[in-house]
């Protein structure tokens, strides 16, 4: 009996610890969400309340209807993210196939180059790309942000896709060739459908990267009108020092919704991506 | 199918578009900023860069106190963050792999902050730590009975950096936790069975089966940790502006200020190269310490 007793106790302690950990990680979200529902006076009253005494949607109305800045940032973020994800997915599906299943001169060097560029911190690209953008008049354009974003995500994406293509058994390839497939049909009809979980990993990693990116966004989009959410919300905060926390909390909640949806839908691939990178090399 | 020229061209059609992007936005900037780091080049006034040799590098290490402060802060931040993130996420992973009801929920909770853009995390925590309207001080004072813990944490040069470490931990711990969870969980059952057939007891199992598998996870988590730490940028930019004084000025922030505050592209480039060298050195050190090889490739999104 004592043994059983101590096992139950250990289990209770484990669960308490787990709840504590979960609480520490989730409480900032809860606080922001709860504040977004409080009316103005309640946010600035002391003592602070944790659970709203009165639920009010006034800030939501304000942000959605009277803050054109926020809508613009949101739109910029969506456009830049979606286009970058599409281009990275397409280019890595193509390039990863060449790296994983074809032979070409310079292949080994190309792979070394990809791996090296994964490990260089990308601040090093910032200044030349800024100079380049400014000369080509790409500052404050979505294109000027999308192009470097594509380049930064490509090395990892190529690496992931190369891995996905490599593990496909060559019997499938042989069979398809006997059926008369050319290289592009083989890639598009046979290989790509099998490698789609690699594509999903590329999509989620790229999405998360672009939706959060700050350094290049703040540098290549000097004008407020063109900024994306991560920069724009900081900008909104700075605009008015006494900026309403109610409005602030809503912009945060709204900025997190798209990435939360994507993350929940594709969580499996995200975690698989980390693990694959981590343990299979 | 025809053999010969047509066929040898095909791989280049596949890899070509990606290669163009990489050459234009990675190779070229890499070389260009190396060149710039040996020049004096004010983007506003100077027509073109003027070659000055090592002058920028010498200036940094000889006379530039702000750079030294940034270097010191970055190292302190990176070291603290690195130790805490590795130890913390290992402990959390050990807890989460144990027999738990609602394990998915707990795991999701830890991973959740990964989706929050760092700059927004900065905004959130600036407000949470606000001395008047922030929830942190309020809870410390009113609920936990620790009025000593209610301070202006971010306004104090001696504590501001530590708050930023905590915010980074909150944001990135899920990443390394997943790595350790994978390390703990992916050890194939049959290896254990094979070990048991060979007569291994649980201590031997731990030493010969569990630890070697965790070694990779350790290496990776350490690599993520140290690189994340050296790259710290958004938080000081958003939360403290590098202050109070130079208390949270970091290398990345220094680069940005030099380049886009003073348009001193040469000096900024030299700091960028110093920072990269630091990161590569730390990764190399990690490789040597753990004896891992061929795993640098996984530095993925942290860079």
Q: What would the principal axes of the Cα set say about the shape of chain B?
A: globular
How many distinct beta strands of chain B? 2
The CATH superfamily of the largest domain in chain A is identified as MetI-like
What is the architecture of the largest domain in chain A at the second tier of CATH? Orthogonal Bundle
The main pleated sheet of chain A reads as:
none
Output the radius of gyration of chain A: 24 Å
Q: What is the H/E order of chain B? A: HEEHHHHHHHHHHH
**Quaternary form:** heterodimer
The count of helical stretches of chain B stands at: 12
Decide which structural class fits the backbone of chain B.
Answer: mainly alpha
Q: Could you describe the 3D structure shown?
A:
The complex is a heterodimer of chains A (281) and B (303). Chain A has two domains: 2-36; 67-280, MetI-like fold. The mean pLDDT of chain A is 88. The radius of gyration of chain A is 24 Å and the shape is globular. Chain A is built from 13 helices and no strands. The longest helix of chain A is centred in the last third of the chain and has 36 residues, at 245-280. Chain A is an all-alpha fold and 281 residues long. By secondary structure, chain B is mostly helical. Chain B has one domain (65-302): MetI-like (MetI-like fold, Orthogonal Bundle). Chain B is built from twelve helices and two strands, in the order H-E-E-H-H-H-H-H-H-H-H-H-H-H. In chain B, helix 5 runs parallel beside helix 10. The longest helix of chain B is centred in the N-terminal third of the chain and has 33 residues, at 65-97. The model of chain B is unreliable at 1-6 and 294-303 (pLDDT under 50). Chains A and B meet through helix 1, helix 4, helix 5, helix 6 and helix 7 of A and helix 1, helix 3, helix 4, helix 5 and helix 6 of B.
What's this model, at a glance?
The complex is a heterodimer of chains A (281) and B (303). Helix content of chain A is 80%, strand content 0%.
List the helices and strands and how they pair.
The complex is a heterodimer of chains A (about 280) and B (about 300).
Chain A: H1 2-36, H2 40-43, H3 58-66, H4 68-101, H5 107-119, H6 123-135, H7 142-166, H8 170-178, H9 183-194, H10 196-212, H11 215-220, H12 229-239, H13 245-280
Helix pairs in contact in A: 1-13, 3-13, 4-7, 4-10, 4-12, 5-7, 7-10, 8-9, 10-13, 12-13
Chain B: H1 5-36, E1 39-40, E2 50-51, H2 55-62, H3 65-97, H4 103-111, H5 118-128, H6 135-143, H7 160-185, H8 189-197, H9 202-230, H10 234-240, H11 251-260, H12 265-290
Helix pairs in contact in B: 3-7, 3-9, 5-7, 5-10, 7-9, 7-10, 9-12, 11-12
């Amino acid at each position: 009996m004592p043994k059983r007793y101590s096992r139950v106790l250990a289990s209770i302690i484990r669960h308490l610890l787990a709840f504590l950990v979960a609480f520490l990680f989730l409480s900032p979200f809860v606080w922001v969400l709860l504040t977004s529902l409080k009316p103005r006076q309640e946010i600035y009253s002391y003592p602070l309340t944790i659970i709203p005494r009165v639920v009010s949607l006034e800030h939501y109305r304000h942000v959605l209807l009277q803050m054109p800045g926020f809508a613009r940032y949101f739109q910029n973020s969506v456009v830049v993210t979606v286009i970058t994800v599409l281009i990275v997915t397409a280019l890595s599906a193509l390039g990863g196939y060449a790296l994983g299943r074809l032979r070409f001169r310079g292949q080994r060097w190309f792979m070394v180059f990809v791996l090296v560029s994964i490990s260089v911190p990308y601040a090093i690209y910032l200044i030349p790309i800024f100079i380049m953008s400014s000369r080509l008049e790409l500052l404050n354009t979505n294109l000027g942000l999308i192009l470097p974003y594509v380049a930064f995500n490509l090395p990892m994406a190529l690496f992931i896709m190369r891995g996905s293509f490599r593990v496909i058994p060559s019997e499938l390839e042989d069979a398809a060739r006997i059926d008369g497939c050319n290289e592009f049909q083989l890639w598009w009809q046979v290989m790509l459908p099998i490698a789609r979980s690699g594509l999903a990993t590329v999509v989620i990693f790229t999405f998360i990267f672009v939706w959060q990116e700050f350094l290049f966004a703040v540098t290549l989009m000097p004008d407020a009108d063109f900024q994306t959410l991560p920069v724009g919300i900081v900008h909104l905060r700075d605009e008015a020092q006494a900026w309403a926390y109610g409005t602030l909390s809503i912009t945060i909640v709204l900025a997190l919704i798209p990435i939360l949806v994507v993350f929940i839908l594709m969580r499996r691939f995200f975690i698989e991506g980390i693990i694959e990178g981590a343990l299979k090399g | 199918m025809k053999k010969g020229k047509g066929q040898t061209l095909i791989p280049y059609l596949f890899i070509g578009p990606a290669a163009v992007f990489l050459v234009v936005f990675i190779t070229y900037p890499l070389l260009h900023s190396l060149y710039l780091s040996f020049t004096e080049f004010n983007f506003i006034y100077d027509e073109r860069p003027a070659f000055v040799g090592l002058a920028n590098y010498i200036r940094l290490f000889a006379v530039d106190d702000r750079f030294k402060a940034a270097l010191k802060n970055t190292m302190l931040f990176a070291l603290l963050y690195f130790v805490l993130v590795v130890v913390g996420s290992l402990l959390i992973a050990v807890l989460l792999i144990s027999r738990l009801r609602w394990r998915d929920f707990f795991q999701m909770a830890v991973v959740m902050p990964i989706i929050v853009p760092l700059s927004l995390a900065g905004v959130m925590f600036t407000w949470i730590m606000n001395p008047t309207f922030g929830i942190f001080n309020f809870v410390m004072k009113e609920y936990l009975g620790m009025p000593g813990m209610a301070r202006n944490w971010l306004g104090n040069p001696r504590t501001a950096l530590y708050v930023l470490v905590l915010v980074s931990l909150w944001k990135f711990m899920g990443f390394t936790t997943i790595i350790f969870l994978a390390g703990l969980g992916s050890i194939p059952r049959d290896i254990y069975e094979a070990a048991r057939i060979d007569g291994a007891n649980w201590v031997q199992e731990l030493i010969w089966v569990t630890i070697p598998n965790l070694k990779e996870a350790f290496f990776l988590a350490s690599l993520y940790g140290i690189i994340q730490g050296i790259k710290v940028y958004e938080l000081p930019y958003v939360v403290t502006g590098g202050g109070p004084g130079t208390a949270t000025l970091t290398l990345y922030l220094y680069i940005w200020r030099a380049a886009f505050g003073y348009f001193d592209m040469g000096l900024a480039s030299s700091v960028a190269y110093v920072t990269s060298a630091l990161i590569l050195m730390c990764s190399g050190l990690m490789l040597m310490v753990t004896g891992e090889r061929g795993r640098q490739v996984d530095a993925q999104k942290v860079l």
